[in-house]
Amino acid sequence: MANKWDDKNVTISDLQKIVMDFVRKRDWEQFHSPKNLSMAIGSEVGELMAHFRWTNSKDEENTAKECKNNLEIAHEVADIMMLLLEFTKVTEIDIAQAVKRKLEINEIRYPVDEFKGKNHKYTKKQ
Amino acid sequence: MANKWDDKNVTISDLQKIVMDFVRKRDWEQFHSPKNLSMAIGSEVGELMAHFRWTNSKDEENTAKECKNNLEIAHEVADIMMLLLEFTKVTEIDIAQAVKRKLEINEIRYPVDEFKGKNHKYTKKQ
Amino acid sequence: MANKWDDKNVTISDLQKIVMDFVRKRDWEQFHSPKNLSMAIGSEVGELMAHFRWTNSKDEENTAKECKNNLEIAHEVADIMMLLLEFTKVTEIDIAQAVKRKLEINEIRYPVDEFKGKNHKYTKKQ
Amino acid sequence: MANKWDDKNVTISDLQKIVMDFVRKRDWEQFHSPKNLSMAIGSEVGELMAHFRWTNSKDEENTAKECKNNLEIAHEVADIMMLLLEFTKVTEIDIAQAVKRKLEINEIRYPVDEFKGKNHKYTKKQ
After folding, report:
1. Each residue's pLDDT tens digit, B74-92
2. Contact criterion met (CB below 8 Å) for B114 and A25
């Protein structure tokens, strides 16, 4: 278990456990199919995007600082993370391994020589 | 650092580090504002949802098993995780702390007595 | 112009005009780039999906009737439509022609003989 | 019926009819619940947003022109429109009336005097 509860100390499984405890205590797993969970993530990302939709380039400098202190944004990040942890629990996907594999694929797809500093325009990455 | 690279051993910071190394080597941070990252998460979740959109109740039993072996779904989960890790790096949000705080709020908002086994109908939770 | 203002009488251009009048009177076009508009549509669809995310098959029979009388759902549909009309105005896309062309492509891609009654599983249609 | 098939001549009902004919010929209505349709719109908007996610302010001037000639973007707009038309058919929402009512609400919520030229920051509009 973690000493201090922060990103440096908490494993993905640690975080997943407190989420699943919450869900199970309420007997909510019956409603939380992979389909429903993916839809919930879609809703929460919609909420997150709502913070940025009308900003333009003049605003961009301040945006990162504003986000840092914006509790609503932290809540939306938390929601997305919790739903993703539940999704991967139900579908038995190991997030750390999935990320590592995807980065290996991306290393080949986006060689540094070719893509450094470039706005990699694409519509569908994979 | 992790012994075995999996959810049991990898911390959120460990995972964030390999993502940020990838991005920085390619000098892509300039394109990755919080706004753009949130939009990218929206796109990736769209990809994830596409796997489930026409399924109906007859399919639901098999869905979790199917997801487990579906490489595309694992890729989309990885994409969402990587973008979220970058978003929280740029906005200096600690995911573990954000999730813990959100669960504390939800403990109060959804007391077990009242919400156990209930399909909590709501349009916007927070 | 339409006699009665409803779907039977109102053309896409009629509807687009009242939306653009609203936007222009407020001098909001400067914030409404194609990027921002697509992001706003993403947010609004997130709102729409939130109504359905935890429903399961037992609920499906009643859902269509419930939607009919749900003002919030009508508002979200309106928001999505208005943003789409603005997006197509800015990008000079004719919606009627775009839909006709896409259906022609889909006629060939999904021949009736082969696809009738089938849950056409796919991740990306086009 | 429309003389020329374009936004100036085609009513919302005209467009809805050709979409519903396509769906019914394939006996697909059984899969197209309001929930599934909202999820499909979410997926398609994800596709649309993917075109813009890494663009920054230097690109914005060209974006509207690029969109105009981009067939993929026209296809995604068509998909969103078709799904929205089906959603409103199933839920018996009249789009023209819904938009008119929403604009009436917005006229009051965003008086011209107060909101002209202002980037109306908000997370949840309604």
Report:
1. 999 999 999 999 999 999 9
2. no
Assign 3-class secondary structure to B23-57: HHHCCCHHHCCHHHHHHHHHHHHHHHHHCCCCCCH
Average pLDDT over residues D30-50: 95
Query: How many residues does this entry show for chain C?
Result: 126
- Find the mean pLDDT for residues B111-115: 93
Q: Which residue has the higher pLDDT, A71 or D65?
A: A71
Interface test with B, best of A53, A100, A102, A103 (most B CBs within 10 A): A102
- At residue D13, φ and ψ (nearest 5 deg) are -65, -40
CA distance C43 to C36: 11
Chain centroid to Cα D96, Å, comes to: 13
In the complex, which subunits touch C with 3 or more CB pairs below 8 angstroms?
A, B, D
DSSP D58: T
Output the six-digit token pair for D33: 């619940």
Rounded distance between C-alpha atoms, residue C67 and residue B20, angstroms: 44
Q: What angle do CA A84, A89, A93 make, to 5 degrees?
A: 85
Distance, in Å, from the CA atom of C70 to the CA atom of C63, rounded to the nearest integer, reads: 10
d(CA B66, CA A90): 11
Decide: helix, strand or coil at residue A92: coil
Query: Average of pLDDT values for C31-58?
Result: 91
Choose the closest CB to A49 out of C43, C54, C124. C43
The CA distance from A46 to C47, in Å, is 7
State yes or no: pLDDT of A86 exceeds 60: yes
Q: What is the DSSP letter of C10?
A: -
Q: Which residue has the higher pLDDT, B62 or B78?
A: B78
3-class state of residue C100 by DSSP: helix
Whether the CB-CB separation of A13 and B7 falls below 8 Å is answered with yes
From CA D74, how far away is CA C84, in angstroms rounded? 11
Q: Nearest CA to A119 among C126, C124, D54, C56? A: D54
- Tokens, residue A20: 């699943």
Residues whose CB falls within 8 Å of the CB of residue C123, separated by 6 or more in sequence, listed in order: B47, B50, B51, B72
Q: Which chains share 3+ C-beta pairs under 8 angstroms with A? A: B, C, D
Tokens of C57: 């098959």
ipTM of this predicted structure: 0.91
Which tokens belong to B72? 């595309």
pLDDT (0 to 100) of residue B125: 44
- Whether the predicted model's global pTM rises above the 0.90 cut: yes
Give the whole-angstrom CA distance, residue D99 versus residue D14. 18
A39 contacts in B (CB within 8 Å)? 49, 52
